[in-house]
Amino acid sequence: MPDLSSCTIESDGEKFNGRYQLGFEEYYPCEDGFELKIKYESEGDNWARCVSKNYLSCSYREGAQIIRRDENLCYYYYTAKSRPKPNYVKMWVDGQYLGQFYW
User: Hey, what's the torsion of the CAs at 45, 73, 35, 100, to 10 degrees?
Assistant: First the structure.
């Protein structure tokens, strides 16, 4: 795509300094302390999980499953939530970040 400023003008006819970055995020971010793990297999046994980065104290966590237990510490995972609109654009105008917008 062309530079954003090449196809936009301000009300006084001057071009403004803008830029954008396109991207794709299939899943929502995981909770703090968890990281996204995705597995794709040709047989269709695909999954996306948020997996704890470190051992956590073993206790009930709604929606989470224990992967591994070591005495009173556990590794957890839960199913990652997919985005209904995974494409996004990040926009800047005159050096100011405007945000990330999904479609």
Answer: 130
Q: Are 93 and 17 within 8 A, CB to CB?
A: yes
Which helix (H) or strand (E) is 13 found in, with range?
A: none
List the single range of 31-35, 67-71, 78-82 with lowest mean pLDDT.
Answer: 67-71
Where residue 14 falls (left for φ over 0; alpha for ψ -120 to 50; beta otherwise) is beta
The structure tokens listed for 33 are 């302390």
CA dihedral defined by 1, 29, 85, 18, rounded to 10 degrees?
-30
Q: Could you tell me if residue 24 is left (phi over 0), alpha (psi between -120 and 50 degrees) or otherwise beta?
A: beta
Which contacts of 29-38 are long-range, i.e. CB under 8 A and separated by 24 or more positions? 30/80, 34/76, 34/77, 34/78, 36/80, 37/77, 38/80
Asked if the model's pLDDT at residue 89 lies above 60, the reply is yes
Query: What is the pTM for the complete model shown?
Result: 0.70
Per-residue confidence band for 78, with pLDDT thresholds at 50, 70 and 90: very high
